[in-house]
Amino acid sequence: MMDKITITIVDDHEIVREGLRLTLQGEPDFEVIGEASNGKELLRQIKVSRPDVILLDERMPEERGVEICKKLTKLYPELKIIILTAYAEQEESIIQAMMAGAKGFLIKNVEISELKRAIRAVVRGETVLDSQMAACIVKKLKEVPSQEFAQPLLTEQQLDIARRVAEGLTNREIAEQLYLSENTIKFHIQNIMRKLDVHNRIALVTKLIQDGVI
After folding, report:
1. Are 190 and 171 in contact (CB under 8 A)?
2. CA 29 to centroid of chain Cα atoms
3. Distance from the first to the final alpha carbon of the chain
4. What does the alpha-carbon distance between residue 119 and residue 24 come to, in Å, rounded to a whole number?
5. What is the pLDDT of residues 25-57, one digit of tens each?
């Protein structure tokens, strides 16, 4: 019997929590083990039961989701946090969240199948970003003056993969487009991150754009 992915849902609207719980609980590999309506309640729960994944609303009462994320990743760096937001045009919040340790940033109107895929992806160690948000981040970062590129040059194949990461594509989607295995893409992305001394996909895209590479 496979281990289930345990999930905690954090949103100040009960109807949202209930809808997500009923939807996710129907998956054989998911188990919703907690719900919280604010950051304080979540922190109390985490001390008792540690989920694999936290679905965290960005606009929480009293404290923003990004701030809650910072606290959680500092206390429990192994947590996989996906932040849900109503708006795509939140470049600064997205970058802050990813730098703080969030593993995903999705718009609330995301299709259920995409949300389920994102949950499984972050458990595998991937970082997930909604494609609309990726476009907004790229546009925003390209407004920043480029710096001289001092890092080791990437191969053409690595640059191609990096551009697809910037478009918000997952490892699987990149693999399908380039006719390579998902493990090969994962290996290339790890190499790119090592060369550029970054630790997640948002930091990777930020570095490449600021250095004028893409």
Report:
1. no
2. 20
3. 45
4. 10
5. 989 999 999 999 998 999 999 988 899 999 999
- Any idea which residue has 């997930």 for tokens? 128
Please state at what angle helix 14-25 crosses helix 112-123, rounded to 10 degrees. 70
- Which residue type is seen at 14? E
Element (H, E) at 109: none
Structure-token match 């949950």, residue found:
119
Give residue 8's region: left, alpha or beta (phi > 0; psi -120 to 50): beta
65-120 per-position pLDDT tens digit = 888 888 888 888 889 999 888 765 555 666 666 666 788 888 888 888 989 999 99
Give the tokens for residue 190. Answer: 């790890």
Q: Is the distance from CB of 60 to CB of 36 less than 8 angstroms? A: no
Residue with the bigger pLDDT between 204 and 96: it is 204
Sheet of 30-36, strand order: 30-36, 5-10, 53-57, 80-85, 104-107, 128-129
Residue with tokens 């191969």: 155
Residue keyed to tokens 């487009």: 177
Q: Which amino acid is at 177?
A: Q
With a CB cutoff of 8 Å and minimum separation 6, the contacts of 10 are 35, 36, 37, 38, 39, 42, 54, 55, 56, 57, 60, 65, 68
State percent of the chain over pLDDT 90: 28
Backbone phi and psi for residue 54, each to the nearest 5 degrees, phi listed first: -120, 125
The helix/strand/coil state of 191 is: helix
Which residues of the chain form beta strands (DSSP E)? 5-10, 30-36, 53-57, 80-85, 104-107, 128-129
